[in-house]
Amino acid sequence: MRSDKGWYLDDGGTLVVDGFVPCADEVPWRQIADQVHAVSVQSGAQVERLDRLFAGFLHLTAVDGLENLTCPDGSAGAEGASEMFAGCSKLRRIDLSAFDTSRVRSAWGMFQDCRELREVVLPAQGFPELREAGGMFRGCSSLVTVDLSNLDTTDASNMSSMFSACSSLLMVDLSSFDTSNLMRMGGMFAGCTSLVAVDLSSFDTSACSDMRGVFSNCNSLVRVKLGDKFRFTSEEGKLPESEWQSATTGETYTSEQIYTDRQGIADTYTNLKPAIEAPVITNETAVTWTKGAKDGFSLRSNANILLFEGVKIDGTSIDAANYEVTEGSTIVALKPSYLQTLAEGEHAIDIVSITGSANAKFTVAPDPTAVKPDPEPEPKPDPKPDPEPEPKPDPTPDPEPTPDPDPQPEPEP
Question: How far apart (Å, rounded) are the C-alpha atoms in residues 94 and 336?
């Protein structure tokens, strides 16, 4: 089935785009937006513009075939993708990996208020002509993290409110951003109440004139990485009020001190008083592992696995080869080959996350099947030597023979 108007809604609620759709003023399916559950873009599909193309599809859960979607050559319709998916509140995943964004200059509010959105896959080419990224993810309240390493921001001038009200956002790495032309980033993370870590180490804010409220209400922020070209251009844009420890100096600074005295200094700051509780072990903590057992044992920290940093045993970090980490929230399984090397007795384990350490004790018990060597016989004391025999007195010598008093002469023959 192919429509003569370039699109149709099938019986299952899928909007099929299969031809040229004139939409210079308004997309023609606006009146049936509440009936659309999926979008399928067929080969040969073409629209006059991308702005608000699928906006307001409240029940949209899947989009397929974006690689087939084009705008007429030479038209300005491909330059603006503002609010393209705005208000698609049931959409959980969007894959733009094959979508042609080579001419997109504005992504303002592109995913705004996609409240269930959890994953965004960007094209490898990024948005090479991007100028406007303001409000791009504003109100994406289920977004926990997002990989923007492919987003080309070389010419971007506006990132205001880019992540504002992303209340589930835990961490974001923007170290690949080129912000040499950035002029506005006010409220960039405003209302990101769960944000724990952000990497802005590549940010150059020398051209930025609006930084107001960039971290407004980011009370859970634990770690911020800044580069030597990052400068706070507004007192209203400084870090949340707290005590921040420098990874470089080890010293503690207030937000005001960082704003006034440490401008343009590459450093990583850790919040010593974040408004977030340290993680805890949530499963059985009274663990006894017996030497010789073929399996290790697992402990679960309630910290999100995205925040995992490592494991310590008895206060010393151990090699990652000695354990496995899986999601839910953070499950660490110590391998039996490692446990076998530990001494018998009680040990301490720390599952370390950006937000702190979840700790517990465990015991290593001896192998009951191990053949115990015969005990060494106790040394016997040296026998006492026989006493030296006392010397006996010399026996009384035989008396000298008494000579005859008058020997008689021999008779003559």
Answer: 41
pLDDT digits 0-9 by tens, 210-268: 999 999 999 999 999 999 999 999 888 999 999 999 999 999 999 999 999 999 999 99
Ordered alpha helix ranges (H), 288-346: 336-339
What is the sign, positive or negative, of the torsion defined by CA atoms of 291, 296, 301, 307? positive
- From the list 320, 325, 316, 302, the residue with the least C-alpha distance to 347 is 316
Q: Which residues, in sequence order, are CB contacts of 322 under 8 Å at separation 6+? A: 311, 334, 335, 337, 338
Residue with tokens 């993708």: 81
Q: Cα–Cα distances in Å, from 60 out to 27, 35, 39?
A: 16, 9, 8
Q: What is the pairing mode between strands 345-353 and 14-17?
A: unpaired
How many C-beta neighbours within 10 Å does residue 133 have? 27
